[in-house]
Amino acid sequence: MDDVQxxxxxxxxxxxxNQVGKPLRRVDALGKAVGATVYAADFTMPNMLHxxxxxSDRPHARIVRLDPSQAKALDGVACVLTGDDVKGAKLNTDxxxxxxxxxxxxxxxxxxxLDTVRYVGEPIALVAAxxxxxxxxxxxxxxxEYEDLPAVFDPEEAMKPGAPILFExxxxxxxxxxxxxxxxxxxxxxxxxxESTFRMPFVEHAYLEPDAGVAWVDxxxxxxxxxxxxxxxxxxxxxxxLGVPQNRIRIRGTMVGGGFGSKExxxxxxxxxxxxxxxxxxxxxxxxxxxxxxxxxxxxxxxxTHRTGVKKDGRITASxxxxxxxxxxxxxxTPYVLLYATGMATGPYKIDNVRIDSVAAAxxxxxxxxxxxxxxxxxxxxxxxxxxxxxxALDLDPLEVRxxxxxxxxxxxxxxxxxxxxxxxxxxxxxxxAALGDRTPDSPTRRIGRGLANTFQSxxxxxxxxxxxxxxxxxxxxxxxxxxxxxxxxxxxxxxxxCQIAAEILGVPLDRVTIYATDSAVTPLAGxxxxxxxxxxxxxxVYSAASKIRARLARRAAEYIGVSEENILLENSRAxxxxxxxxxxxxxxxxxxxxxxxxxxSHLAQFNxxxxxxxxxxxxxGDIWPDFTFGAVAVEIAVDIETGQIDLLKCAASxxxxxxxxxxxxxxxxxxxTHQGLGYALLEEFVLEEGRIRTPSLAEYMIPTIFDFPETxxxxxxxxxxxxxxxxxxxxxxALTPAAPAVxxxxxxxxxxxxxxxxxxxxxxxxxxxxxxxxxxx
Amino acid sequence: xxxPAFDLLRPTTLDEALRLLSEMPDALPIAGGTxxxxxxxxxxxxxxxxxxxxxxxxxxxxxxxxxxxxxxGGVTIAELLDDPMVAQTTPILTEMASSFAHTLVRNRATIGxxxxxxxxxxxxxxxxxxxxxxxxxxxxxxxxxxxxxxxxVGAFTTRxxxxxxxxxxxxxxPSDRSYTGFVKMGLRKISCMAKIDVAVRVEAHSDGRCxxxxxxxxxxxPIAYRAEAAExxxxxxxxxxxxxxxxxxxxxxxxxPRSGSEYKRxxxxxxxxxxxxxxxxxxEGGS
Lengths: 778, 287
Known about the structure:
By secondary structure, chain A is α+β, with helices and mostly antiparallel strands. Chain A folds into three domains: 43-149 and 210-256 and 262-295, Aldehyde Oxidoreductase, domain 3; 302-462 and 614-774, Aldehyde oxidase/xanthine dehydrogenase, molybdopterin binding domain (Aldehyde Oxidoreductase, domain 4, 2-Layer Sandwich); 468-608, Aldehyde Oxidoreductase, domain 4. In chain A, helix 13 (494-506) links the parallel strand 18 (481-485) and strand 19 (513-517).
């Protein structure tokens, strides 16, 4: 993989635009830089109560007695709620019938445990008190007696006969089968069958901002919840849990200090809703870092086995894959995460004969749910490590094996879904390899390894969810622009992107656009900031709304100037004649003219993603996602074979983002996603022993600092073929996916053998060194 | 948990601080608080009062006196790191300080606090052990002096009585034929607890031979300790590759890591060998 020449790019004709495609200062940048941005934990209200949550310290137990009377009697305690008080309300974590073959709504997590706790950290009771200290004291006064139940901590064990059952009839949470082509025939055609098993740990999101919110009941009796969330639409679930109409719950999202999927689940908001309704007073709940570790979801551990039939030239004839995922105690989004991992299990490769069996099982551990990539990174750790194992088995260059199998536009995934946008896998791979430059020489104790990973990752939600987004765009009488769009901004530039799109279409500088976002009552609902969907969905909604207004403005300007509509260009806050810029009307004058004549200066648009039916239940064939982003990472590492320490020396990442709406923001997403993926490979492991957390805080749980890895060389490619506005594809999640498998392949390159389990800690590396010496690969 | 309520007392002299400590048995001294505050949040201590000793003038300076470097117990790791006299006389302390946590913690954590806390992964102890440091403990009856190795008893355990304060770390200024090295291995480059600390010091004869050596190891036993068998192997010998390899092997063998961490012996051996090889290469008059 040394001395690789970048593959020439296909010709793409991207128009030169004024606002889009420029690294403009993001609309949210200044507030964050000067500390003016107000986050969820910063809000206070008069007469406000402080809340705390009592949580289980048992992995699996029956609650024999739960007596809050002493806590309730404590002076300054306004309210204590238990499972009985919330009448067994549950979180809607699964949509029955939409999650593959098992529909298990009965196993949804209760808001507060009723009679059984199933993991350490499960909420049991809520307290609201005049001060935080009183709330904590009240927690200590709640009398809980448990009777421990047998527990299970491994998904494979959980599926064996006789295992402790979390929910009847068994611990299987979700299961998928994919049957494409003829596996047996494909295997028969193979010259060699390569089999490998890879394992991945629980991972903590470690967002900067622990979960927080403030709730109150307003003068109309509406419950308002100001919360850091990726999903303002949770007002519906909260209304259902409280038994109130949906229009009586209002979620006012805040700027979010990072979510990475963890704030896709309901966190503090449902507790706040119950407490503020009960007390009639404002209530605030802020998790400590340790509570955020204890109480929120993790990335799913997976065990993935690949059995791949290959020809001597590297061509894959058949792929059989088994996946086992750990759901933790409750399903939350496990069925969907497993679907993502399954649907992307064969990677960006054209494979005709596929058999995949995947299953997720419940255990008495912290629940797992969404985490940037949503199963895609685990799938990639399977298929990309396997590509290198195939290369090793055949003594071929890893890039050559990939070249022999890359899918092209028009080819299908393992579910038979045709990829219609550009597939620039080789363009990305050759660029990241070339970016590594000369190979660093080995020394007796430092072995150099290089690794490549080519991945693809969907953007946009599962199509049978019938996803929609809405945006309202208006032009004010001074020519400034307002956007109202319920897009939660989780720090990835979601709000800025839609502003740049509106600025482009309406021909105003970015600083003339103001966005009001993420309020379920007053901003049109835009859907979740998850699934790398906001640029695609809300970007298209804003594009559509702004285009409607642009057409009205252009029509009126054309009439005023006396040219045809097609000759009008909106630029620099003017409507100008395309071939004679001396003829123009200022946008503010045009807006006033329209307003006086009753021409509408605003528009509410809805964008609907393509809708499909679900997969065939027997074969797993069908379309799942709107489109995919293709990318690659290459790294060079040094393994100290005496201490087991790994130094990352060089890292390059390249993705085809379709069109970079803001290249600086895209670079930030790719650099940040890569860094997070490198941490997944080298540092991060959320350790549970018998269901108890051994890495309870940031002192034990190692996230990468800025000093740990060199700066990633980011190479942005633009095919212009995405389904987002201006041909954009999504990059939020895809940015993370290739980094960890690239590191895994580099470590295997350095040692000559593969370490089957992440992360690559000194201990695991040294064990591998011993094995490599025995096998004479080192 | 939120920080429990406590009274914060701020004495202005050492005598006043010692008097308060003796009068208030449930009080704890606090300097940087980088260990104590998290412990309080966890609920592992519940003192009624904290006595802030960070501003006591007697604890706050670094001086050179009668062949000793005197480092006040309240000197922060950042001050140690930035002190030119420390860099010149005991560069191993500068190296140690540069690997200690990260800037924000170094700005608050004190050398006295680090030793008194006596965590197994305490970084300052191995570096000070190879320097033959002693510590002064001031109490109501006056000040007593102990070798550091004697002061450190075990994990989170020292010979400090609850009414005593660690006022001073006394480091004999090494001769100009003293060569040192320090390495910390953690799971990442900064801001982590040590998995292994190794500190070495070689006092060389003018012909380059080792007069005596000190090798101390941290984070692989309840408390940092000296690998005396390894040291003995070097005393009087030429520091050639064979001697270094054997001393390093002995250093590794001295460790008793927890079950599952046996790999640390091998790492200690490698780190000790590298440090000693580096030191041997710097010895003037050596081959």
